[in-house]
Amino acid sequence: MAELTGKRALITGGLGTIGRALASAFRDAGAEVTLLDRPGSAPPAGFGWIGVDLADLAASTRAVEGTEPFDILVNNAAMILNRPLEEVSIEDYEQELRVNSSAAFALSRAVAPGMKASGWGRIINLTSLTLNGQWEGFVPYVASKGALYGLTKALARELGAHGITVNAIAPGAVRSEAEDRVFADRLEEYNAWILAHQSVKRRIEPVDIAEAALFLASDRARMISGQNIGVDGGW
């Protein structure tokens, strides 16, 4: 029997590069998977679907509360701006914090009652390697991921007595569509810089993040909570 058989998993940003890898891995492990992404997108066959804008916290909460309880929540969705500080508006900053961190709070609060009732739950937040402070031009993104790490620690303490673990995964530079877009004008230079900094001299793939998430969702990780686990090739 697959280790997540009978579990219901909600994955945000489910249509992105990492989101698709997460979705496939959790489905292969036996979970019933629902993807959450922007409305108007075309969901793949074989998955549940919630189309909602995560920047609308109230709508996101209503959408999740209107479904059957989830056993697993993976807060994967994120927006990312790569601009110098002087080109980042207050509105940009607030929007990125809202999507990357506040939405994770709203969804965690929405799924927590069902997890408490069953005495079992897993919340997994995707933070970022950029918290190491070695990246320029990502002020709102890094700030939002720092808030998400703090949320992880606080929720782990808040929910642990109910059989719910809360952890974070800090991906390194994962080969993705977002990377191709953000670094389109310097992709070869960027790739060389990444490999120079990593201990393991190969690029991280989305499946590497999915495997870590599967472990944290399983009972093999039942005594791991409040952690931020780097899957970054060893910086």
Question: What this model shows, in words?
Answer:
- With 235 residues, this protein is of the alpha/beta class.
- It has a single domain (8-230), classed as NAD(P)-binding Rossmann-like Domain (Rossmann fold, 3-Layer(aba) Sandwich), CATH 3.40.50.720.
- The protein has helices spanning 17-28, 57-65, 90-118, 139-159, 177-182, 187-197, 206-217; strands spanning 8-12, 32-37, 48-51, 72-75, 121-126, 164-171, 228-231.
- The protein has a seven-stranded parallel beta sheet, sandwiched between helices.
- Helix 4 (139-159) links the parallel strand 5 (121-126) and strand 6 (164-171).
- Helix 2 runs parallel beside helix 3 (90-118) and helix 3 (90-118) runs parallel beside helix 4.
- It starts with 7 loop residues before the first strand and ends with a strand.
- The mean pLDDT is 95.
Mean pLDDT: 95
The stretches of 5 or more residues where confidence is low (pLDDT under 50) are none
Q: Which percent range fits the helix content?
A: 40-55%
Radius of gyration, CA atoms, in whole angstroms? 17 Å
Specify the number of helices: 7
CATH class: Alpha Beta
| SSE pattern, N- to C-terminal | EHEEHEHEHEHHHE
* The CATH fourth-level homologous superfamily: NAD(P)-binding Rossmann-like Domain
Named CATH topology: Rossmann fold
Structurally, the number of domains stands at: 1
Q: Quick one: biggest sheet?
A: 7 strands, parallel
Straight-line distance between termini: 36 Å
